[in-house]
UniProtKB/TrEMBL annotation:
It comes from the Bacteria. It holds the Pfam family Methyltransf_25. Keywords: Methyltransferase, Transferase. InterPro entries: Methyltransf_25, SAM-dependent_MTases_sf. This is Methyltransferase. GO terms for molecular function: methyltransferase activity. GO terms for biological process: methylation. Residues 44-133 form the Methyltransferase domain. CDD domains: AdoMet_MTases (cd02440).
């Protein structure tokens, strides 16, 4: 089960995934950090938004304007149902070209389903959708490699670049690294990157 099966898998298990997805909001501290640096009006692009619970719902509660993007149609349908005040778009994040910019871009537990080469290409997508000073936050692995995980009992592909390559890609695309915590014990072991688009970036 490689990266090419991710969208069909999530389409198939969307309802079970939504039921089983933890709602404790262990991500809260990181989401608050992202919102704290996002310039007003805090328009957030949530890439790989899934069913919208709990992350997009929390962002909306914090008065952010959320646009959720997911390539799985069943996930977009759930997102629309669960977060009715948000914009929902079905699209592939790898080729996304909305023609507008956001004050924060989030790829939480989504970007890491892409193969290494597609992850490299995502940094141009991040740059094309961020305003100067915007926040960028994503999760990845803590070291280079590929592993298999599970979503609603189904195997799913994960990949990561080396942390130094992520740093180089952020810098090359106009982002300043603000915080990096590998396997954060306060966030269920997630490896999290938080960056900001430089004001002088094109």
């Amino acid at each position: 089960m490689g990266p090419e099966h991710i969208l069909s898998t999530y389409d198939r298990v969307a309802a079970d995934f939504d039921k089983q997805r933890g709602k404790s909001l262990f991500e809260r501290a990181w989401l608050d950090r992202m919102l704290a640096i996002a310039p007003p009006p805090r328009r957030v692009l949530d890439l790989g938004c899934g069913s919208g619970r709990p992350i997009a719902s929390y962002l909306m509660d914090r008065r952010a304007q959320v646009t959720g993007v997911d390539g799985a149609a069943a996930m977009v349908a759930l997102f629309t149902q669960n977060v009715p005040g948000a914009e929902a778009i079905q699209d592939d994040m790898r080729t996304l070209a909305l023609g507008r910019r956001f004050d924060a871009v989030l790829a939480w537990n989504s970007f890491f389903h892409l193969c290494a080469e597609d992850q490299r290409g995502m940094f141009a997508v991040f740059a094309a959708h961020t305003t100067p000073g915007a926040a960028l936050m994503f999760t990845a692995g803590h070291k280079e490699g590929e592993v298999m995980g599970h979503a609603a009992g189904q195997p799913v592909f994960h990949a990561s670049l080396d942390p130094e390559e992520y740093r180089a890609l952020l810098d090359a695309h106009g982002f300043e690294e603000l915080r990096y915590v590998p396997e954060d014990p306060d966030c269920n072991g997630h490896t999290v990157w938080l960056a900001r688009r430089r004001n002088d970036a094109g």
